[in-house]
Amino acid sequence: MRYLKALVTILTVTMILGFLTIVALFVMRFSAMNRAELPDQITLPEGARASAFTQGDDWFAIVTEDDEILIFGKTTGNLRQRIQITR
User: Fold this and answer.
1) The dihedral of CA 6, 12, 18, 24: what is its sign?
2) Which residue of 40, 50, 75, 81 has the smallest Cβ count within 10 Å?
3) In terms of residue numbers, what domain contains 71?
């Protein structure tokens, strides 16, 4: 019976350490994913107001309140494409 208690204790400690390791790996991975490298300042066209933001590997996009998507280069910050959303 004494060996059974020791075995249960060892397995419990092992499972707790494994769980903590998995949680730590998730935290490190997800915190590394949220690092966005964007220009310090984004210049929108005259009168445009941003309502949403998204990004890809080498671009980011701003959706304006006028239903327009502005796609910028991530490294240069230059406007690449302008898409009008039609209803």
Assistant:
1) negative
2) 40
3) 50-84
**DSSP H/E element including 8:** helix 2-33
pLDDT, tens digit, 9 for 90 and up, residues 28-63: 888 766 665 666 778 888 888 999 998 888 899 999
If DSSP codes are grouped into helix, strand and coil, which group holds residue 24? Answer: helix
This prediction has a pTM of: 0.56
CA-CA distances (angstroms) from residue 48 to 42, 69, 84? 12, 11, 13
Q: How many domains does the chain have?
A: 2
Q: Which residues pair with 61 in a beta bridge?
A: 54, 71
Residue 54 in tokens: 């998204």
